[in-house]
Write a structure and sequence with these properties.
Layout lengths: L3 H28 L4 H18 L4 E7 L2 E4 L2 E2 L1 H4 L3 H9 L4 E5 L4 H11 L3 H6 L3 H7 L5 E4 L14 H25 L6 H18 L1 H9 L7 H17 L4 H12 L10 H4 L7 H8 L1 H10 L6 H9 L20 H15 L11 H11 L6 H11 L7 E4 L4 E6 L9 E6 L5 E9 L14 E5 L15
Antiparallel strand pairs: 1-2, 1-4, 2-3, 4-5, 6-7, 6-10, 7-8, 8-9
Helix pairs in contact: 1-2, 1-5, 8-9, 8-10, 8-11, 9-11, 9-12, 10-11, 11-12, 11-17, 11-19, 12-16, 15-16, 16-17, 18-19
Length: 469
Amino acid sequence: MMNDSSSSEIRVPIEELVKELFAARQVSKNYGPSHELTKESIKKLLLKLESVSSSQPEITIGIIGNEIAFEKEPLYELSKYLRDIIVHLKELKIERISFLRGTKERELLSFLDIINMSAEAVEKSGGVKHLAESLGMETIVFSRLAAGSSMSAEGETDSNFLARQNIQEVIQFLEKTSDDIQQNRRIDAQLAYLLINRIISNLLQNKEPLLILSSLKSHDEYTFLHSLNVAILTLVQAESLGIQGTHLTEIGVAALLHDSGKLVLSGDIIRKKEKLLPDEFGRIRQHPLDGAKILFDSPEINPLSALVSFEHHIGYNAEGYPQRLYCGKPNLVSMMVSIADYYDALRSKRAYHDEMAPEKVYEEITKVAGSQLHPELVENFFGVLGVYPPGTLVELDDKSVGLVIKESVLDIRRPQVELLYAADGQKVKIPYVVNLLEKEKDIDRYKWTIVKSLAVTEKIDLPDKYHSP
């Protein structure tokens, strides 16, 4: 979450951008797109957009109630002068407008044309999203809020709210992608990049809420949440290695779509409890190649995604599948995705076993580090995530119970824990955070140590902010 100073610093240029945006809209409406005044206003708008986007991978302007808002922050004063525009945007069914880096002049002209149309004309043309796609707008995205969500959430921090929204939107995207693949339709690459940029923005501001909520949401290995978790866990690795900008975005999209080949498989095969027949086993092992073909045939998606889909089961020692015609280690991104995929698979419910405790997952993964998985990347993975990642329910040595909310960079087994239940089993009235690195005074002994992780059951009353969407 942005602190007060950084929020204030970005708010002023955002308000200036919004003013330029709707001033250009009015000029275009009055004089038409080819008039010199319109061209001049577009140039001013483009310069302002480039200036603001230099520090923001994505700029999202939305509507909260009857106010224009940046992210989740209403711009009350500015909204007073934009009432007619707000009403018009609502009539066009526009709830959010996202500008990605690299917006071109022609895209801004197309954007102004759309928001100057009547609601009736837009509806007859198939809606704003269809219009944007038909006009080739790649870096300006119209969207609506995820079903069941709101751009305001009383009593919830910005980071928790954005994390919930990220999860809902990505799962909806993956459901649509599954249907698109099965119906031989193109993957919505533009939306994939937009959603990954939102996840990156959230992770860079405060990664723990997203890790906690995705960890607490129960799932099996083959649900869409698995693909989201792999994307999050891969992005966390990549960011810790200093990868940023468009490279980080491409890695996130590749991780999100790594299992595209499974979307063409029958659910009966994927969730079969009995031993697979040879033909069924062969089809499972075919999914990396199937996914690579699907993604390679999607020209809007970087070829890295196809490569990662193909390689994510090959392994560090290259003894996995499918067979390759080329030698050498898999791509670095493929190996990061392999670790995230392996980790989340062990932490997930499968047809033939329940989810594995995180401390046991740590043991299992370290066993294959150096053979199946890249050893240095495995060390980095747990250095970033810890043995007990955010979202893990744990029992401490004094019998108290809490939820891990932040990993420790100094000791992978000593995170920060929010205590929920006291040693006598009674619920803590006001949960508080303890740092497991803290020691007793004058004694070289830690105050608290994790004994074991616990499964989150209905008996555990988590604070509302940790309830998964």
